[in-house]
TrEMBL record, chain B:
GO MF terms held by the record: dihydropyrimidine dehydrogenase (NAD+) activity; iron-sulfur cluster binding; metal ion binding
SUBUNIT field: Heterotetramer of 2 PreA and 2 PreT subunits.
Similarity section: Belongs to the dihydropyrimidine dehydrogenase family.
GO cellular component: cytoplasm
Catalyzed reactions per annotation: 5,6-dihydrothymine + NAD(+) = thymine + NADH + H(+); 5,6-dihydrouracil + NAD(+) = uracil + NADH + H(+)
Described function: Involved in pyrimidine base degradation. Catalyzes physiologically the reduction of uracil to 5,6-dihydrouracil (DHU) by using NADH as a specific cosubstrate. It also catalyzes the reverse reaction and the reduction of thymine to 5,6-dihydrothymine (DHT).
NCBIfam families registered for this protein in UniProt: PRK08318.1
Protein name: dihydrouracil dehydrogenase (NAD(+))
Matches recorded under SUPFAM superfamilies: 4Fe-4S ferredoxins, FMN-linked oxidoreductases
Length: 440, 433
């Protein structure tokens, strides 16, 4: 604990340098070879394995673990990446406790699943660190596809299309590719610039042109793309954020959690990122937890995560909730923000307790706050996009939209959880469907 | 990906991984699943004449487990196919027709007379099968009826039957050998003399896996009694490797193709059999433990290994280790090694200490803070510490450089090769000329 943790207001450098380094190192250090063999040995090589069914990208988990166990981690990596080209990132950020590892029969038997996520990382790192890209392109088809958004869905789609012999142009609004992998995930989950490393590795397939700093409606329209390309894949994610419906929410110190997370990810020195002494995060999803945990890691003295419903309704997994609690984040449930108090800058935020039906109880709670992060959901923005289903682009199983020649996937499309791994699966499946349509 | 295509005694298969004649290859349904899963070939479960045999209606298998209930050894008392001959023949024909690129070998066991062999061979030929394997190996049940290992234990019978078979078919003939003998080279030599195109080994080993201590009966127990079965699985691999190597390095048997069988579970096991002279491998227990999908790991693993070594074809591995299999009296007695413990990897369990202190040469020191170090003055490089250490690569054997002094013997390590045949302690040593 540095001497500046009690300093009120929003300041940088609350901790000593060693604490920053420790706080923002790997959440799960990579398994070494011995640990990987011990972990791999526990896999039973189940038939029609439940872990495969639980994986949105259907990675053949028993096979890749057996390949690790028999001393061929590069073969294991190929097994993983054939199904999920971003298997490296998914190994780091997937909520495995709610996917493959929850389904593991050893979770049922002993409450201790095989360490699937960590084994996956062991294998993919082993291959990628040698610079090996085990895929090559099919003969050129002469077809050209536009992909909007260089996040997990867009890059997964682009890679598969490139592999099948199509030329792909990927456009992204941000300065760097990667989407939420680069801008939206907690720093400690993907340290060492892995998001860019993975993108660089993925692009080794060839045939993919990146155009950063250009967005749908800001540089080009969907009609432009339909005219200039044989197919279009929309994967621009959710660019907007929901507004906070509380009096005084425009005060200084109140900001979107996604911006805080992005700034932190792009910071060259986390010690230079200012953080409040008293921080309140509003929301109950992964973004809320990522913001709250990182506020704590930056040296905030008091971090409170406030969610309007019960813990069982939180989108953040139990693992994430426990992680937040273990870092000292206080979780308050059944409370909705009603007013932000302060003279210019936020000093306190007031909540009203609500029941399970979200009905106000009249009871209130006031929390001191130098900084308030809103993590209450993101929204799709863009004009002239295909028909929506609720608040997202309506898509078929294979990502087809209401507009001929236009597919969509990832967070901007309906269906599926908003997870990296789901986006990768949707991008891959759309690519296969686009290929089918383009070459028959 | 490396080219795994295999050609064994003229029989082509997409990879060198065949399923051995056993329950997994007893029916069309299983064999189709096997080929769909990627197996390069199968040896159909042994056929005999009708009336077909019957099996017990109780447990047929017994097992030996390692840690975490890993199946290390399997024992069985199942007999040859218990389905009508024609049913099997029809199914073999149907499968071969649909899978022309996979190898289809038919295992046979009929009485030890020429007529039955003369009769069954044309029936097999008619199926379009690629070859036959003569089951001279089964150690239980059939051997009581003068077949299986009862033939395989008498070289003269092997030679005689093999000769009959070769005289009565155009198909390549593989003779499957039993390990329940004293010198595997004798039955292999008999098969060769009889004209066999290849031998396959090992069949299962006579065994009782365990005893039920409430019933006082061997397992598997059938109504209170048990009979010995045939043992297979990872536990028998070392026995099989040795027998394969014995044949491969014998000057008389040199060049006799071998199909390696016995505990092949991973690509590495398969590669080891190939290196010791097997032209391909046959697998059973691994498939019975994990399902047919296991072959995917064997394929990717062997391919990765070949790529990493720059090996272009399976044949380049075959026999590559044979020149390095020798007799004890040819080992270099001037070679001196010492154990070395990597302190960064050591987890201080002390197993090496217990093994060395209690049962070997008192060559490991243990400090107050549980640091374990090798005492070079005592270490004979026996390798026991390496074998009991739970951490891979933590203890290694380091060769001493010639010219340095072995602190145990006080002698300078010599650069030249010298074996027991010239050693002064050998009463029959001949002085080097």
């Amino acid at each position: 604990m540095g001497s500046d943790v009690f300093q009120p207001g929003i300041t940088a450098g609350r901790l000593d340098p060693d604490s920053y380094a420790e706080h923002f190192s790997d959440l799960h250090p990579r398994l070494d070879a011995h640990e990987a063999l011990v972990a791999a040995d526990r896999c039973y090589f189940c038939h029609d394995a439940p872990c495969i069914t639980a994986c949105p990208t259907d990675i053949d988990i028993p096979l890749f673990i057996r390949q690790i166990a028999t001393g061929t981690p590069d073969a294991a990596a190929k097994t993983i990446l054939t199904q999920n080209i971003m298997g490296g990132m998914c190994a780091r950020v997937c909520p495995t406790e709610a996917l493959c590892e929850e389904a593991c029969v050893r979770e049922a038997a002993e409450g201790k699943p095989v360490l699937i996520g960590q084994l996956q990382r062991y294998a993919t790192d082993h291959l990628q660190e040698q610079g090996i890209h085990p895929f090559s392109r099919a003969a050129a088809t002469g077809k050209k596809v536009a992909v909007v958004g260089a996040g997990p869905a867009g890059l997964s789609c682009a890679h598969r299309l490139a592999m099948l012999g199509h030329d792909v142009v990927v456009m992204d609004a941000r300065a760097k590719p990667g989407g939420l992998n680069e801008y939206g995930i907690a720093t400690y989950k993907t340290p060492g610039g892995y998001a860019q490393t993975e993108v660089d590795w993925l692009l080794q397939i060839g045939g993919i042109t990146l155009q950063c700093g250009t967005a749908l409606g800001d540089g080009f329209t969907l009609d432009d793309l339909r005219e200039g390309y044989d197919a279009v894949f929309l994967a621009m994610g959710l660019g907007g954020v929901n507004a906070l419906d509380a009096e005084g929410s425009d005060k200084d110190g109140v900001r979107d959690a996604v911006d805080f997370i992005a700034d932190l990810r792009q910071a060259s020195d986390v010690a230079q990122v200012p953080i409040g002494r008293d921080v309140v995060v509003i929301g109950g999803g992964m973004t809320a937890v990522d913001a709250a945990v990182q506020a704590k890691l930056l040296g905030a003295l008091n971090v409170t995560l406030v969610y309007r419903r019960g813990r069982d309704r939180m989108n953040a997994s139990v693992f994430e909730q426990d992680l937040a609690a273990s870092k000292g984040v206080r979780i308050v449930t059944h409370a909705v923000p009603v007013a932000v108090h302060g003279n210019g800058s936020v000093r306190e935020i007031e909540f009203e307790y609500v029941d399970d039906a979200m009905k106000g109880t009249g009871q209130t709670l006031r929390l001191p706050a130098d900084q308030v992060f809103k993590a209450i959901g993101q929204t799709l923005i863009g004009d002239g996009i295909p028909e929506l289903d609720g608040r997202k682009i309506k898509v078929s199983e294979t990502g087809r939209t209401s507009v001929a020649g236009v597919w969509a996937g990832g967070d901007c499309a309906s269906g599926g959880d908003d997870l990296t791994v789901t986006a990768v699966a949707e991008g891959r499946d759309a690519a296969m469907d686009i290929h089918k349509v383009l070459v028959g | 990906m490396a080219d795994l295509r295999s050609e064994f005694i003229g029989i082509k298969s997409p990879n060198p991984f065949w399923l051995a004649s056993a329950p997994p290859t007893d029916k069309e349904y299983n064999v189709r699943r096997a080929f769909d899963a990627g197996w390069g070939g199968v040896v159909w479960k042994t056929l005999g004449f009708d009336p077909h045999v019957v099996n017990v209606n109780g447990p047929r298998y017994g097992a030996v487990f390692g840690a975490d209930r890993r199946l290390l050894g399997l024992n069985n008392i199942e007999l040859i196919t218990d389905r009508p001959l024609q049913t099997n023949l029809d199914e073999i024909k149907a499968v071969k027709r649909d899978y022309p690129d996979q190898a289809m070998i038919v295992s046979l066991m009929v009485p030890c007379e020429e007529e039955p062999w003369k009769k069954i061979l044309p029936m097999v030929e008619e199926t379009g099968a690629d070859g036959v394997e003569l089951n001279f190996g089964c150690p239980h049940g059939m051997s009581e009826r003068g077949m299986g290992s009862a033939v395989g234990q008498v070289p003269e019978y092997i030679e005689m039957v093999t000769r009959w078979v070769k005289a009565n078919t155009r198909m390549p003939v593989i003779v499957k050998l039993t390990p329940n003998i004293t010198d595997i080279r004798k039955p292999a030599g008999a098969a060769k003399s009889g004209g066999a195109d290849a031998v396959s080994l090992i069949n299962t080993i006579n065994s009782i896996t365990s005893v039920d201590l409430d019933l006082f009966a061997p397992e598997p127990t059938i109504d209170g009694k048990g009979a010995h079965g045939g043992y297979c699985g990872p536990a028998v691999k070392p026995i099989a490797l040795n027998m394969v190597a014995e044949i491969a390095r014998d000057p008389e048997l040199h060049g006799l193709p071998i199909s390696g069988i016995g505990g092949v579970t991973t690509w590495r096991d398969a590669a080891e059999f190939l290196a010791l002279g097997a032209g391909n491998v046959q697998v059973c227990t691994a498939a019975m433990t994990y399902g047919f999908k296991i072959v995917q790991e064997m394929i990717s693993g062997l391919s990765d290994y070949m790529d990493s070594k720059g090996i272009a074809s399976v044949d380049e591995i075959v026999g590559r280790a044979v020149p390095n299999v020798t007799d004890w009296n040819q080992l270099n007695l001037n070679y001196v090694a010492k154990a070395k413990i990597n302190q960064d990897l050591c987890i201080s369990c002390g197993r090496c200490f217990a093994a060395c202190e209690d049962t070997s040469h008192q060559a490991i020191a243990m400090s107050e803070d549980r640091t374990f170090t090798v005492i070079d003055e005592e270490c004979v490089a026996c390798n026991l510490c390496v074998n009991v250490c739970p951490v891979e690569e933590c203890i290694t054997m380091e060769a001493m450089t010639p010219g340095s002094t072995d602190p145990r013997t006080g002698r300078v390590v010599q650069p030249d090769y010298a074996n027991w045949t010239t050693h002064p302690n050998n009463p029959s040593a001949k002085a080097a000329e």
